[in-house]
Amino acid sequence: MADEVFFRMREIDKVYPLEGEDVHALKKVSLTLDEGEYLSVLGPSGSGKSTLMNIIGCLDTPTSGEYILQGREVENLDELELAELRNREIGFIFQNSQLLPRLTARKNVELPLIYAGVRPRERRERAEAMLERVGLSDRMDHMPNQLSGGQQQRVAIARAMVGNPSILLADEPTGALDQKTGAQIMELFQELNDEHRTVIMITHDLKIASRARRIVHIIDGELTDDPQWGKSHQAVPQPKQAGSAVQSRDD
Ligand SMILES: Nc1ncnc2c1ncn2[C@@H]1O[C@H](COP(=O)(O)OP(=O)(O)OP(=O)(O)O)[C@@H](O)[C@H]1O
Ligand SMILES: [Mg+2]
Predict the structure, then answer these.
(1) Ligand nearest to the CA of 43
(2) Of all atoms in ligand 1, which is nearest to the CA of residue 52?
């Protein structure tokens, strides 16, 4: 039943209608994810990554095909419902942290909770807990321009996580960082996944993609699983590493 499905795409097409010639940006894309997975979507420029990200993140809807997220059939939702689903289920992280420059780190992290109607005191506590989680307890009152690039990206990750979304959706999150800082950010994603957060990493960089347990390739709008990366295509939850609170079921 749809209401038990965590994440399933079936034969998703996205066509951008343009005068002259339509652009067929996604072609029959099918993808199933389990909660707690760490997936990379790897593909070259123009292959359809951002298009796919926009659909996964409920920023855009497919031309045809089925997409179910947390039991909701996305194609049946109106703009408002889509926005609600997006705010609840998706934490976005982009290449540039996109923090608001006039707000402190803490206020930036509080923002999604303001939109969600959370009261000030709880907002503050949750924002501080998240900033602690990403290793920034001593930087909460800094403005973005008083933070390093890696620290800004940590704030962005805290902001993405503070609403407790089901999926962290990252588009080249280390693209603007030097190698060492980028590696630290990738380490953080790994830790978050070890804590059973679902991570979708969108990148053109094989080295970045290789950190995930499972890689899918996107080329010219077509998605293929990489059999080399082990994980079967069936929806079988993988037992998590030590420390995970989630138990695998034997049935
Ligand atoms: N709004 C749009 N209108 C028309 N065509 C579009 C639109 N957005 C994307 N496209 C086309 O769809 C295809 C996929 O674009 P997309 O932005 O998804 O690629 P990408 O994999 O994210 O590339 P990059 O790595 O450069 O960001 C491209 O051919 C692009 O020109
Ligand atoms: Mg893109």
Answers:
(1) 1
(2) 18
CA-wise closest residue to 57 among 194, 205, 160: 160
Could you tell me if the CB of 46 is within 6 A of ligand 1?
Answer: yes
Residue type, position 65, single letter: G
pLDDT in tens, 45-60: 999 999 999 999 999 9
Structure tokens at 35: 């909660």
CA atoms within 13 A on the CB side of 50: 5
- Ion ligand 2, residues whose Cβ is below 5 A away: 49-50
Which ligand has an atom closest to residue 51 CA? 1
Considering the entire predicted model, what is its pTM?
A: 0.87
Which residue matches tokens 């080295």?
A: 207
**What does the DSSP 8-state code read for residue 4?**
G
What are 225's two structure tokens? 């699983």
Chosen CATH of 2-227 out of 3.40.50.1390, 2.30.110.10, 3.40.50.720, 3.40.50.300: 3.40.50.300
Token pair, residue 172, equals 């080249």
Question: Distance between the two ends of the chain, CA-based, in angstroms?
Answer: 18
- The domain segmentation of the chain, as residue ranges, is 2-227
pLDDT band at 239 (very low <50, low <70, confident <90, very high): very low
